[in-house]
Amino acid sequence: MDGSNKNALIDEELQWPNGIALDTVRERVFFADGHSAQEKIEYTDYRGVNRTELVHLTDTHVDQVFGLTMHDNTLFYSDWVSKGIHLTNLESGITQVLVEGLTRPTQLYLHHPQPYPENECTAYGCSDMAIPVPGGCHCKCRVGRKLKADDKTCETAPEPWIRVEDWRCAQSCHEQAYCAVEVSNPTIYRCVCKAGYQGNGFQGSGCTACDFGYYKSVLRPGQCTQCPDGVSSTAARTSCVCRGGLQWYMGECTSDVPEVTARPTTPLVFPGTMPRFESCPDTHSWQLPEDANYVTWDIRLRALDGYDRPLEISPRVPSKIYYGTGSMIHQFTATDQWDNMVKCRIEVTIEDITPPQLVCPDDIIVETSGESAIVRWDAPVTSDNSGKKPMLTSSRTPGSRFFRENSPHTVTYSARDEAGNPSTCSFIVAVQGMK
Known about the structure:
Blueprint (H helix, E strand, L loop, with lengths): L16 E7 L4 E6 L6 E6 L6 E2 L11 E7 L2 E6 L4 E6 L5 E5 L29 E5 L2 E5 L4 E3 L6 E3 L4 E3 L13 E6 L6 E5 L3 E3 L7 E3 L4 E2 L9 E2 L5 E2 L6 E2 L5 E3 L2 E3 L21 E2 L5 E5 L7 E3 L5 E2 L5 E2 L1 E2 L6 E3 L2 E10 L5 E11 L5 E3 L4 E5 L3 E4 L5 E3 L7 E4 L5 E4 L5 E8 L5 E12 L2
Parallel strand pairs: 25-32, 34-40
Antiparallel strand pairs: 1-2, 2-3, 3-4, 5-6, 6-7, 7-8, 9-10, 11-12, 13-14, 14-15, 16-17, 18-19, 20-21, 22-23, 24-27, 26-30, 27-28, 29-31, 31-32, 33-36, 35-38, 37-39, 39-40
C-alpha cells in the first residue's frame, strides 16, 4: 500500500476502465470497460490471470458502466445510458434495477454497519502516515515533507522543490530530471531538471547541462545562473569556483562563511565503479507447505557505491514478506551521489504441489422392492492447504437413480485445487431386493 512494486494486472483489450471493485473473499478484481466498443464487466484474480467476462450482462444489461462496488456475492454498478444503478447476483445471474431516473450516476460506495478492524499500523509511531506493507508498516510523509533518519518522523523539506514519485507527473520526465513539487505550493507536480541542468524537464526536449560559467545549485525549474565576473563554474555546474581564498556560499564568493561541525568527508570524484547490490537473486522459489497457505521470506539486500559505502534502497526492504501461491516481482533500486542507479529485480514463485483433501461417504446399501432406487448422500468434505475451496466434480450426484441390474455402482468424486492438483475418492452404492 506504499505504492511500491507496481504491476499491471490487465493492459490488453481495455479502453475505458471506469469502475473497479474487489471481491476480497474470493480474491477477485472486477472491472468495467465503458467504451462503446467494449461495454462489459469482467473479473480477474489478484495475479491478473483467469480473466473472465460476465457474459450474462453483456449486450443485455450494460451499456456505459462507470462505477462498481461489491458486497458478498452481489455486484452493484452504475450505467450512464440507462441512468440507473443496477445489481446482479453472481450465483443466480439475476439482475435488477436498484435506482433509476438519475442524470449521470458515477462512482458507487457501499456502507456496511459492521466496523472496520483496527489498523495495526496506528500505533507504529509515524508522525504523518503509517502505510501497511507486507510484513509490517512503513511511514510516509505528506507532500512537502521528508522522512528523517529515524524513518518515522517527518520534517519540512529545506529545499524549495523536492522529488516525489514518478507516477505523480502527467508526462514522462527527462533522464536528467525528477518529478517534483514545490514545497510552498504542494498541489502541482511537474518535471524539474536536476541541479546543474536547465530546461523544461520533459522527455525529449528535456534538460541540458549549464554552460561553462553558469550554475544551478538545487532541484528547481528555470535557467542556470551566471557566476560572478571572473569566476568559473564547477564541472558539475552546481556552484562556482572562487579565487583569492574566498568560498562559494549562498550564491556569492565570500570569506564570511559560518563554521560548521566537522563531518566525514564525502568523496566528490566518481570512483569509476558503478553502484551494485551485494546479492540480488534473480529468482526465488518455494513449495507451499502442506499445513499452511503462505510462506515467509526475510529479504536481505545491501547496496554499495563505488567506495563501498552503503546506499539507501528504494522502496524500503520490508523485514518479512508473506507469500501465497503464484508469482510476485520485486523491484528495488539504489542511486549513488552521482545519480548512477543500480536495479535489483527478484521474481518470487510459490508452487503448490499438495493435492486437496477429500473424504467420501461410506459405502451405501439400499433395499428396494422395485428395479431401481433414488439414493441421496452428503457431498464429500473438501479442504486445501491454500485455504481456498477446491473445485468438486462427481460421476453421480445426490438424488440420482441407481438400478439393481448393474449393482453395485461406483461413485467417484474428483477435487482440483487452484494450482491444478487433483484428488479423488470413491464409494459404492449397492441396490438390492427387499429381504
